[in-house]
């Protein structure tokens, strides 16, 4: 089993939306991938609490795959790539870990 965790810090405003609006939209887009990409074993998305530390990241993706091959198939899926392009427009920074 391979676990893929990503954290994003979002811009205060981007693509005509607030950080909060983009966080909600990002969560929806990522959660919809479960119905589109069969390689996903598990996928959860969390949005940082408004009352949490301002230095925290804003959105977290926790996903699992059978192995590196299936994760790469997920990452190369056209729908995932399209979401990734959009994320590039709304994010300030990104960190990730695969284990």
Query: What is the N-to-C succession of helices and strands?
Result: EEEHEEHHE
Choose one word for the global shape.
Answer: globular
Mean pLDDT: 97
Rg is 13 Å
Secondary structure class reads alpha+beta
CATH architecture descriptor name: 2-Layer Sandwich
CATH topology value: Alpha-Beta Plaits
Q: What is the β-strand count?
A: 6
CATH level-1 class: Alpha Beta
Helix content: 40-55%
Give the strand order of the largest sheet, numbering strands 1, 2, ... along the chain: 4-5-1-6
What is the total domain count? 1
The proportion of strand residues reads 25-35%
**Gap from first CA to last CA:** 9 Å
By DSSP (H or I, 4+ residues per run), the number of helices equals 3
**Which spans have pLDDT < 50 for at least 5 consecutive residues?**
none
Largest sheet: 4 strands, antiparallel
Task: Write the topology of this structure.
Layout lengths: L1 E9 L2 E2 L2 E2 H18 L5 E6 L11 E7 L2 H9 L1 H13 E8 L1
Antiparallel strand pairs: 1-5, 1-6, 2-3, 4-5
